[in-house]
Amino acid sequence: MSENLVATQKKLKLGSLLVAVIMATFGLGTAAHAQAVKGSGTVGTIPVWNGNFNIGDSIVSQSGSIINVNGGVKASSFSGNGSGLSSVNAATVGGVGASGFAQLAVPNLFSASQSINGNLTLSGSLNNTLTLQSDVTSNQEESANVIGGFGGNSTVPANSVASGVVGATIAGGGGTLSGGFVEPNTVTVAWGTIGGGAGNTAAGRFDTVAGGVSNTASGFLGAMVGGGRGNTASGLVATIAGGDGNSATGDGATVPGGYANLAAGMFSFAAGSEASANSDGSFVWNDSVGGTTTDIGANSFVARASGGFAFYTAKGTATGVYLPAGSGSWASLSDRNVKANVVDVDGQDILERLASMPIATWNYKTQAESVRHIGPMAQDFRQAFGLGEDEKHISTVDSEGVALAAIQQLYREKQELKNRLEALESRLATLESSPK
User: Fold this and answer.
1) Per-residue DSSP letter, 157
2) How far apart, in Å, do the first and last CA atoms of the chain sit?
3) Are residues 295 and 185 in the same domain?
4) Are 240 and 364 members of one domain?
5) Is the domain of 258 the same as that of 145?
6) From CA 189, how far away is CA 86, in angstroms rounded?
7) Domains contained in the chain, number
8) What pLDDT is recorded for position 19?
9) Pair 179, 163: CB distance under 8 Å
10) Which helix (H) or strand (E) holds 33?
């Protein structure tokens, strides 16, 4: 062999050897790394690298289609609507702490303002003082109920609206009064309203008790008690403004207040103390002296004022009439200081006018024929004397003045006749005593 050929073969053998060494080196490296991975795992648990070459259990496991995480989850974003989430108790939502939003199945105390855009349907109470009942339907009527005030406890009942009632409102009040009196507010008929107070009841449709204590509005429709204590408005659209122990039992009856008044007639009115308007359309006012004052029949006006009556017809308290305490006659104002343009009268003229004026007996058309009166017609009186405000009325002060003027004139004429008679008798006596 030539030297060149021998040299070439040596180079080829050296190259093959180098290739074998390189391949062996890569093979040993791979085998070495594969042999360095070690560790053990639990079935169903997703593994985690505990080091560069060691695998162990992670906090995540899978059971069927459920992934369990025994720890926290941190992610930059989530997709989906979260409809499958349960038992979530987030520490913050949108940067707001747990006290700033509602959490389910736990008491909530909000430290941040809340806004509700839309309907709030509440079944229960707010702070144990306000209950809302929406979309209540009964007897083809539909509305909502609002129950405010005392929410009750183990011994004292709460304010309440009876079952089947719609449109009821209790704004507040109710509870226990001093002395242990239990006084809840109650609405028992549809559309009743109680503003507040304690122990009040609205027991008729659209009846209202504004407040007070132990008041009842029980009229069939629209009865009202404004306040006070122990008042009962049981007539249709009857009204009691306040007071103590008053009753309005007639339809449309009214008691403005006072004590123990009774308006029993339709559209009757009783006020003061112990006034009793039993007849339809009657008006009774009674003072505080004591004892009941009652109407004298339908559509009558009765008043007792043991201190007297006064009616004034001009500015101030001068012009008018006065019925003094205990008196049975009106006193008409006749003070010289309130009169002007005073002119003396001619008694003879008055007497002649009076003598020519017709005077008759008659009855008012509004009274029975058996009820007779005597006197002139207002038109004749006006024509004879020109007195009074118009020709349809005769003022008592004018008729009395005419009578007094006529009496004065008759007295003067009587005196003149008496004087003339005395003079004649004197002359006659003189003639009889003279010698014949």
Assistant:
1) P
2) 240
3) yes
4) no
5) yes
6) 44
7) 3
8) 46
9) no
10) helix 3-36
